[in-house]
Amino acid sequence: MNDTADEIRIHARVTGLVQGVGYRYFAFNAARRLNLTGWVRNCADGSVEVEAQGERTAIAQLLSQLKLGPRWSQVSSVETQPISIRHSAGAKEFRVEPGY
Predict the structure, then answer these.
(1) Nearest-CA neighbor of 81 among 50, 41, 58, 55?
(2) Is 24 a catalytic site residue?
(3) C-beta of residue 51 within 8 angstroms of C-beta of residue 43
(4) Is 35 marked active-site?
């Protein structure tokens, strides 16, 4: 991924019926298609957490997809906040992290 001023990193918490419906893999596939790095995981409170880094337009597209979710999900909200960009060698892909 190119290191540009247009690159951002966000943290998102998705609430609703988002566990047990393939949401993490939906987010994973969407992020990979958009060439984003980061991770997705289930949380103990039933929400899903996402951190994603990449071009601003790709992040916006990911957030649109997160609000829709997979077919059987029911997304109530997607709360986002910007966070610091990671420049580590391990941040080259998007992955599914173990949950809670």
Answers:
(1) 50
(2) yes
(3) no
(4) no
If one counts every other C-beta atom within 10 angstroms of the C-beta of residue 22, the result is 16
Q: Which residues pair with 13 in a beta bridge?
A: 49, 79
Q: What does the alpha-carbon distance between residue 5 and residue 33 come to, in Å, rounded to a whole number?
A: 21
Among residues 24, 41, 71, 95, the one annotated as catalytic is 24
Please work out, in degrees rounded to the nearest 5, the angle formed at the alpha carbon of residue 60 by the alpha carbons of 7 and 68.
145
Q: What is the pLDDT along the chain (100 residues), one digit of tens a residue?
A: 445 569 999 999 999 999 999 999 999 999 999 999 999 999 999 999 999 999 999 999 999 999 999 999 999 999 999 999 988 755 679 999 998 8
Pairing of strands 7-17, 37-42: unpaired
Q: Please name the residue that has the structure tokens 């997304």.
A: 75
